[in-house]
Sequence to fold (443 residues):
Amino acid sequence: MNTPICDFVESYAQKNLIRAHIPGHKGKGLSGLENLDITEIVGADGLFCPDGIIAESERNAASVFGSARTVYSTEGSTFSIKAMLYLTERYAVETAKNKLVFAVRNAHSSFIAGAVQNGLKVEWIVGDGNLLTQNVTPSDVDAALKQAEQKPVAVYVTSPDYLGHIADVAGIKKVCERYGVLLIVDNAHGAYLKFLSRDIHPITLGADMCADSAHKTLPCLGGGGYLHLNHSVYEVIGGYLPMAYSLFASTSPSYLILRSLDKLNPYLDGEYSFDLKKFVKKLDEIKQKLKDKYVLVGEEPLKLTVDFKPYGYTGVEASGYLYEKGLVVEYADDDNVVMMFSTNTALDGLEKVYSILNEMPKKPAISRFSPKIALPERVMDVRDALLYPSETVSLSEAVGRVFGANAVSCPPAVPVLYAGELIGEKEKALLEYYGVKKLRVVK
Fold:
């Protein structure tokens, strides 16, 4: 498989031409990468309406992932999610559906921003009440759709979630088909799922659209991502893709990131599956040994999520101990520590991870648990609450007030509250648990 973006950029860099175009470093600088950092000059194609090297590279990516169309993002899944929601709104218009999306409550904060920006109404599906992982089943989705007075245009699912749980995407898709609604998936943490021994990528399992962050689990520069469209939906709204870019993407895409995405295609099409299989087998061996000592959370193959409370540590305390031993984790809160690995993690590095965890001294168990999240009462439309005058108050003053900002998030950007929701005692307890001391409320 060829690499047209890489070939063009490297050829351009070797010609040592006078660069009378941006960026201002003119191919020289302190980082050592400036000669490969270009802009949308003649021959370099354009990300918004590609018809040259970017289009060719994106066709390669679509072939690798088995989609009708795959487009690149140089702004991670944030762009892909907002663009996906714009396309969902366009699909609703083209097919005379309601501009309503049913979303599982543990959606990333960029979801609600995209919904507001695209004029979509949102109704929540709440699972087992855990903030970061809702464990929503096909039956939960079926119940929500069956009871709905207005049917949505789409159901929105985050899978894998931040703690490493994987939803039954195939089962949820079957439910969506029965009700004639789209299934769109935030698969930011699961681009690699396509290349496991059993392909469980959302596009393979029938999702209509899917956002992947290549940089989270694949060997890609930060900010690299994909938006995948399946065949049936692409036929209806594929022509709106240039508009999606013009609304939500920067007009200065990073060619360093585009090169990184381009370079991935032949690797993903070739030896990556072998490397992934070997790595997953090794990490699974580590997990099996750790299960005798720790509570492991989630089943995602490239994540190791540990609840340290039975071992006497909050997640934050455990992450501090691990950092002192040379292990830097992805995320920690009072409940869990999340470690994310990839095929670029050395196998002997995994052995060191095991040694560090195995030698961790035990303390008396902690019995404190995170409050379950109930669905807050909505008293204002999200968009209205965001546009209404607001003020910052302490959490103690916020009870009985209406939340007035885009999101109050715990660290992985999963909102505790959304704009327009009433702050009650239960919401206060959850906000306190996640360390929120001040927040915006509607005046």
